[in-house]
Design goal:
4 copies of one chain form a homotetramer.
Chain A lengths: L1 E19 L6 E13 L2 H5 L9 H14 L5 H13 L4 E18 L2 E22 L2 E15 L24 E11 L10 H18 L5 H15 L3 E10 L2 E3 L13 E4 L4 E10 L2
Antiparallel strand pairs in A: 1-2, 2-3, 3-4, 4-5, 5-6, 6-7, 7-10, 8-9
Helix pairs in contact in A: 2-3, 4-5
């Protein structure tokens, strides 16, 4: 009478820091890893038969052990190794490994960056999402938690006005958002030799440069302008998806206090917020 | 060269409390509402043309205004009214309204529950997800943030053991999870007269009763057992999806201190956690 | 030229769940424990000499080991045992142990509450703060995270009006707050036999009853009314401190939509919030 | 029978962004402000008489209005203006204004930093705490949310070992903490002309430089070494208080997998954590 539909399971929030001390100038990397598997797990659900179950504790062990072999380098490379490992179990159809790399910077000293002391930079999180199956592997990369603000060259006019509309038109408003952007690399990126770090740095630079320089008639248009520029700048990228909250900044009414407010004092809010979600891809 | 793919936009985290004071015994409801629209918004993205854009501020206004007409009652009913309103705009193909109802209980007094003073109960969040389009409306309901624990009748044995496995078999472990469950009602539920409150209460009662009473050989089996019982108890339900973190409780090793630990002292953890996600549906 | 001022150190967020399975009806308790020590630790700071340092890892071990002996019962009793243990180290002048007990309820079944399945109730956190030194021990108890709302019998009028005031007087407003309340028991409470559970339950009942029934001309007055009632109801209590955010609920202006709003639709906010902090004590 | 003890009230989490557009290169500042007042508020508590109450809504208005006059510049200067304003009400004995400044950086472009587009830097929060009364004003400054890591030159040995101790001695461990540091400026700092920005930058640079370069035998000693260096570098500073969680990084045991782990793979944790809190001051 009942049947199992879509299902997956795995281990989330595996926290690991790896340090390469082989040279005086240490390298470190701070990751949070999620593993998720799809495959032949019907018996585990329906019959209570765990034969096919790879324990999520085993997934955690595997992440730590594989990190021993790949202590530094792009998260995508560790992700590919892990995803292919899990996809090789016969009962697994698809393994998805998501790696979030938390940013750290060397502490600046008079002599340059410290060789072994770091501060969490916190301006964005780098994401890598690797999926592997018998048919091969795909790699997505992205940015989370990148909060930005434009203090001009943002407007919102000409929108639908009806009985429920009170928002005034705005020729020059603050635009602020916390960017989540993910993009897909084509099939060849999973092959050895693709420079994931350079691709990530290029994508971030293009995104931020266009964000700073373009005129935004709406958050929707900003997605289009940033995403097409990113696709333009890197032929390895097939598509870009952005999810952008509109973090409203409202001009405070100072008239009751006998003061004007020439776009100078804003109340910053997070609740409620607009939320714009769109994917831009190369035309077929 | 580029084209717009999947896209939607809306307003998230619209917070509202409504109070019905028409009788001495007040009724109140505490909601967080998200609105999301899909439709003909290509020009807004590609051409910077906002003609078709319903401002997210307008969505917020509409939610508050419609709540004036529906201050109490099941969140699904307010959601249906809102989703059908937004779907009626010609440029909208699909409107999704998600309502999270935060639990409040009357403060207990010697004379019974207070007529006008409440405590946030915080044991779960009730969710309603209503989607409307020209073709009609669908209603999903669910539970979030329901943290539970079984102190016995949970085991995990017979799973795959390989080089990376160190987890011992467990005949009697603590099972703890924070339940997210969503279920879909069939088409007729969107018609007037369906008792969403009774259906929700029934689903919650079945879920909790089965959770308490069943023997769990794995979280996966627990999903199957709870979901099939829910489908069995309510013919209006088409499918149930559960997303269950496995909040591990590890037995503390007290041997270094000359003490045994007969399954008595556990360290409670949230990071990392297993994550089991499965849907159970009626067979075709 | 420099000297060490006030200092303390310890272990925070020690998470533990204890289960008593000695009867069919299991008892469980969920605690987060912080330990903090003051004493002769100058050499550790100034000279890098750790001789006097009790490692915070040792504190964690001790908490788990002592919980083996006290798996259930009032958190104050475990706290007294721990605080006296740490205060007995010669280098320790004062040990403070803070225990937060997270609420769980038995899952209701047709046959009554489940013997071994629980839901996190989440309506409040019970706090115990025990301090021990050579001179004896003191015990404080409290409540955190208790969110409440009064839908009438709350006003705010007659306050100072000056150039910077725009708030209208309110005869009948929503009052909502997230209560933190802490109270001190007199010296005899640390002696064996004091019923901490009964005292806590009594304090909570008095607080909630008075909260529900009183007329509030301001949050400040509410503190006074609730605290004096608590002191009145339990002679063991020496003082009560409350810290109450004022979680504003603003009446939505629906006039632009041709609707009235007879105190029915409110926008619920948390930022910014008023914050009222006051202690009430017995007169000397 | 009862009396009012210590009490204060105010407005917390007033969020404001100010922009100076008077030149092509915009300046912006992002603050969260808390205001708290102490004074003659007994009647408000005991008698329900709000005559002396300055509404917290009025405090919010005042912060926005005064920010109109001080849109940029050190937060301490806005704080002094606000604190003195509130302290001038006859019923106020002491006004404390706490300002948290959230970091933003100009988006880097080929031509230099953008004149009007910014990213939230997120590496630390700058804090200013200004207190004013009839007797004058005091200014404290500080740092919050500065997460740091040393991958060497940190040890923890020679601590007390007893029945409850299992922690091994560590000659070379990771040290990681999330720094809260606050320091007090002497009385003259409240006078016009003190360069709060330069003092803050100097304090941060000294703190980070010493953190990177010193050998840490314990977190306690690190506080002493960093704080004395800060006092040494700025004679305006009277004292420094640091509150440092010890964010433990545990070496993963890879032996079950036939691998060594030469201080390379760590599990990063936040719960439980050590917590070290100490103040260092100039000797009398």
């Amino acid at each position: 009478m009942y049947e199992l539909g879509a299902n997956r399971y795995g281990k989330s929030r595996i926290r690991l820091v790896t340090v390469d001390r082989s040279m005086d100038r240490h390298e470190m990397r701070d990751l949070t890893v999620d593993v998720s598997l799809e495959g032949d797990f019907t018996a585990a659900h329906v019959d209570g038969d765990n034969t096919n179950i790879i324990a999520t504790d085993t997934m955690k062990n595997t992440v730590y052990a594989f990190a021993r072999e790949h202590p530094t380098g792009p998260p995508e490379v560790l992700g590919l190794t892990l995803a292919r490992h899990f996809a090789a179990y016969p009962q697994v159809d698809r393994a998805v490994v998501t790696l979030r790399q938390h940013g750290w910077s060397r502490i600046p000293l008079a002599s340059g960056g410290s060789p072994d002391a770091f501060t969490r930079s916190g301006d964005l999180t780098r994401v890598a999402i690797v999926a592997a199956s018998a048919g091969g592997a795909t790699v997505e990369a992205g940015i989370e938690d990148l909060t930005v603000m434009k203090t001009t060259r943002s407007a919102f006019t000409g929108f639908e006005r009806d009985r429920w509309t009170t928002l005034p038109e705005a020729d020059d408003r603050i635009m602020s958002t916390k960017i989540t952007a993910v993009w897909g690399y084509g099939e060849t990126a999973a092959e050895a030799g693709f420079d994931f770090d350079a691709a990530f740095d290029g994508a971030r630079t293009t995104l931020l440069t266009v964000l700073a320089e373009h005129f935004s008639p709406s958050v929707q248009t900003s997605v289009w302008v940033m995403a097409t520029a990113m696709l333009e700048s890197d032929p390895a990228m097939d598509w870009v998806r952005m999810v952008l909250p509109n973090l409203h900044h409202w001009t405070v009414n100072l008239e009751p206090f006998g003061l004007d407010n020439p776009d100078m004092v804003y109340v910053s809010t997070t609740e409620p917020h607009g939320l714009i979600d769109a994917t831009v891809r190369r035309s077929a």
